[in-house]
Amino acid sequence: MNDEQLAVCEFCGQTFYSEAETAMERKKEALMKCKCDEAVRARKKLEYITKAKRELREVFRYDFFQESENAYGEMQEKIMEIISLILPYMVDFEVYGLTVSIPSLGKITLKVTSDGEIKIKRQIGATIEKKVSK
Ligand SMILES: [Zn+2]
pLDDT (tens digit, 9 = 90+) per residue, 28-47? Predict the structure, then answer.
């Protein structure tokens, strides 16, 4: 077995046999397989970021599908992209919360729990609230 066939955990150095072709893929494979605390925590963060991105799409879709079949406009895609950039900082507790007010959507609030999970909620007027996170 040579180095090309080994996936190495970036945190603890444990190695796994790998058939992935690129160094990047092997690194990710090791991250997904390793049972060390750091790898488990890193997987949890990835899971929270993925979940938050999915919920963001749900929030942004809400009003727009009423207007057209194409649920996301260019502006919405860009704003979602910008908000997505902050998600890794939230799971790392560098940023605790973010609120974005968009005239056509309302007030979107992202908050991180003590566990590192990102909760997203949308407030449409003073009283109507749509909670996205379960
Ligand atoms: Zn590890």
Answer: 999 999 999 999 999 999 99
Map out the domains of the chain as residue ranges.
Answer: 3-35, 49-131
Q: Which residues fall within 8 angstroms of residue 48, CB to CB, at 6 or more apart?
A: 87, 91, 116, 117, 118
Phi and psi, residue 125, nearest 5°: -140, -155
Find how far residue 71's CA is from the centre of its chain: 20
Between CA 14 and CA 22 the distance in angstroms is 18
Q: How far is the CA of 22 from the centre of ligand 1 (A)?
A: 19
Say how far apart CA 131 and CA 134 lie, in whole Å: 8
Following DSSP, what letter does each residue of 98-128 receive, concatenated? EEEEETTTEEEEEEE-TTSPEEEEEE-SSS-
pTM of the model: 0.77
| CA of 94 relative to ligand 1 center, distance in Å | 23
Secondary element (H or E) of residue 17: strand 15-17
